[in-house]
Each structure stands twice: as structure tokens, then as C-alpha cells.
């Protein structure tokens, strides 16, 4: 039985996601959909991490925790899992086929 590695996520390859910050608020503009999204610090840190390189949920949780000086605990991991699914629905992230 072969265990598959956890899925990795990345920013979309066919469209760009521009991020602009003012204090604790960040907006993400998805040029493919023409949508702008207001993000909090956790959401912005997640997209910035995925901008650097694709990552799985565990890695993304650790990166966000480090960026915001948070504990990479189960609550943050659950939040990141829900966040990635929401970002996927909005077209801000996509699965990385490796």
C-alpha cells in the first residue's frame, strides 16, 4: 500500500493574484475573475507563503504561524484547512500537481 503525500497548494498559474497591504488589512486582486478580496493578517500571510512556493497544509500552517508569531496548533491547522478550501472556491489557490 502506497501512501500518497498530502496535497500541495499554489497560486493560480493562469492568472495573477496581486496583494496590496495597508496596516493589518490586505486586498487580493484576482485578475482572471476581476474580483478583489479583503484579507486579514492570517489570510494575507497564507497567500504570501504560497506566492513563495507551493506547500501542503502542515507547511502552510507552520509558515503562517512563524510569520505572525502564532502557535502552529490544531486550531490554526483547522483554520488553514478551511481557508485553503475557501481560497480554492474563489480561485485564489489551486492544487499543485507536482
Write the layout of secondary structure elements.
Blueprint: E1 8-10, E2 17-22, E3 25-30, E4 35-39, H1 41-52, E5 55-56, H2 57-68, H3 74-90, E6 94-96
Antiparallel strand pairs: 1-5, 1-6, 2-3, 3-4
Question: How is this structure best summarized?
Answer:
By secondary structure, the chain is of the alpha+beta class. The chain is built from 3 helices and 6 strands; from the N terminus they run ββββαβααβ. The protein has helices spanning 41-52, 57-68, 74-90; strands at 8-10, 17-22, 25-30, 35-39, 55-56, 94-96.
Order of helices and strands: EEEEHEHHE
Largest sheet: 3 strands, antiparallel
SSE class? alpha+beta
Which of globular, elongated, flat, extended, rod-shaped describes the shape? globular
Give the helix level as a range of percent: 40-55%
Distance between the amino and carboxyl termini:
21 Å
- Structurally, how many domains make up the residues? 1
Tell me the strand order in the biggest sheet.
Answer: 5-1-6
* Low-pLDDT segments, ≥5 res: none
Strand content: 25-35%
Radius of gyration equals: 13 Å
**Mean of pLDDT:** 93
Instruction: Write down how many β-strands occur, each being a DSSP E stretch of 2 or more residues.
Output: 6
Query: Helical element count?
Result: 3
Amino acid at each position: 500500500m502506497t501512501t500518497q503525500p498530502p496535497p500541495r497548494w499554489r497560486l493560480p498559474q493562469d492568472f495573477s493574484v496581486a496583494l496590496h497591504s495597508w496596516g493589518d488589512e490586505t486586498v487580493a486582486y484576482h485578475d482572471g475573475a476581476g474580483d478583489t478580496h479583503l484579507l486579514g493578517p492570517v489570510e494575507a500571510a497564507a497567500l504570501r507563503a504560497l506566492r513563495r512556493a507551493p506547500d501542503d497544509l502542515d507547511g502552510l500552517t507552520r509558515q503562517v504561524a512563524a510569520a505572525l508569531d502564532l502557535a502552529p496548533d490544531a486550531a490554526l491547522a483547522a483554520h488553514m484547512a478551511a481557508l485553503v478550501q475557501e481560497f480554492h472556491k474563489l480561485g485564489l489557490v489551486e492544487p499543485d500537481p507536482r
